[in-house]
Design brief:
The complex is a heterodimer of chains A (157) and B (209).
Chain A: H1 20-34, E1 50-51, E2 55-56, E3 62-68, H2 75-78, E4 83-86, E5 89-91, H3 96-105, E6 116-121, H4 127-140, E7 144-151
Parallel strand pairs in A: 1-7, 3-6, 6-7
Antiparallel strand pairs in A: 3-4, 4-5
Chain B: H1 14-28, E1 35-40, E2 59-64, E3 70-72, E4 75-77, H2 79-90, E5 122-127, H3 133-158, H4 163-171, H5 178-194, E6 199-201
Parallel strand pairs in B: 2-5, 5-6
Antiparallel strand pairs in B: 2-3, 3-4
Classes of the chains: A alpha/beta (157), B alpha/beta (209).
């Protein structure tokens, strides 16, 4: 009956790693799906001011406006005066209406009426520029705005 | 030559390749979480001759000049004191008891020289065009904080929870069920009614005016 006797090995059996690629692929797909590559190429400096009394932004119905001084690599070309950026290019204050209408059309049709304008403005910009933008927004009847900030507080820092 | 069976591709390095990709995506992922202070702009209306009258005592004027200094009610003030000053103003409840405007939930000093009740109290912010955006946001933040503090206090008294926390829960979808959501929304609105956010913004003056 020794025929059926198993050979006894003293070594520990190795852990089976055959399913490791599957696990890793699963993780990989998760991150691939979750990743949103930045859609706007920032042309301006954008250090946001701090605030702690904040609300969350609903991304699907928002249009971004950036403002600030041109980034260091564009200073030679565009100077160092604060500029407004919508989408991928600089916009003049008189051209905001056109650029915003264009940006709004990219949203889902049912959300276009509930559009929210997210203002990402550099902390060193003058309030005057923000006021000009707000006036244009009132003309366009896009009245919901949100000043995007970073967490923190000006006083306790 | 006799046909040989094709050798199997070695899949041993598959895991390494997948890991490499995984690490790349891990590093590039930025789960963006944009947060900020939401505001509703006043709609554009044709100019009217009708002037809305607000009593001097119901108006809390915050003035920010071009070098980011604060003038609150004609007194120079540090940013850190603004929140307390705004709370004191909103919560004052100066109307005499027995009148229709009496505020029965205010816990302020009831100074007749200051605001009548939170519904009448208006905070007006005036900027210079050269005020920095950083300061502008800091002031807005403090004023919103004053409202949130008072709303938290009232919701704690009436319902036993904090206004800001429940608003956050609602935003994040932590409240389940339509009925529960509606009930909460109603309560939140009732708190908002106690301390309505009345922040007015004057057109900024050009520097030097």
């Amino acid at each position: 009956m020794s025929k059926f006797k198993k050979k006894k090995s003293n070594e520990l059996p190795a852990v089976n790693t055959a399913s490791l690629p599957d696990i890793v692929f699963m993780l990989l797909f998760f991150f691939m799906v979750v990743t949103v590559l930045r859609d706007d190429n920032l042309l301006v400096q954008n250090k946001l001011p701090k605030a702690d009394q904040v609300e969350k932004l609903k991304k699907d119905r928002s249009v971004y406006i950036y403002a600030g001084k041109p980034s260091s690599r564009y200073v030679d070309k565009y100077g160092s005066e604060p500029k407004i950026q919508i989408g991928d290019k600089y916009t003049d204050i008189s051209n905001i209406k056109f650029a915003l209408t264009e940006a709004r059309q990219k949203l889902l049709p049912e959300l276009q009426d509930k559009v929210m304008v997210a203002l990402k403005v550099d902390e060193k910009t003058n309030t005057g520029m923000v006021t000009d933008i707000k006036q244009e927004l009132r003309d366009l009847n896009m009245l919901k705005i949100i000043y995007i900030t970073t967490p923190g507080n000006e006083i306790t820092q | 030559m006799a046909r040989r069976a094709t050798p199997e591709v070695n899949a041993g390095s598959m895991a390494d390749i997948a890991f490499l990709l995984l690490i790349f995506f891990l590093v590039t992922t930025t789960i963006e979480k944009d947060k900020g202070i939401a505001r509703q702009l006043p709609p554009k209306e044709p100019p009217t001759d009708e002037q809305v009258k607000i009593k001097e005592k119901n108006l809390f004027i915050v003035n920010v000049n071009r070098s980011d200094q604060l003038l609150v009610e004609e007194k120079l003030m540090e940013l850190k004191d603004l929140r307390q000053a705004a709370i004191a103003f909103l919560d004052n409840g100066g109307a005499a008891s027995g009148t229709a405007e009496y505020c029965n939930y205010c816990k302020g000093k009831r100074n007749p020289e200051s605001s009548d009740n939170p519904d009448k109290a208006v905070i007006s912010v005036q900027n210079d065009r050269l005020t920095s955006y950083k300061m502008y946001i800091a002031v807005q933040n403090e004023l919103v904080a004053a409202y949130n503090f008072l709303r938290d206090r009232e919701s704690q008294r009436l319902y036993g929870w904090k206004f800001t926390e429940k608003t956050k829960d609602l935003d994040e979808g932590k409240i389940k069920g339509e009925a529960a959501k509606e009930a909460l929304q109603e309560k939140l609105e009732s708190i908002q009614k106690l301390f309505p956010q009345k922040l007015s913004e004057a057109e900024p003056k050009k520097s030097g005016q």
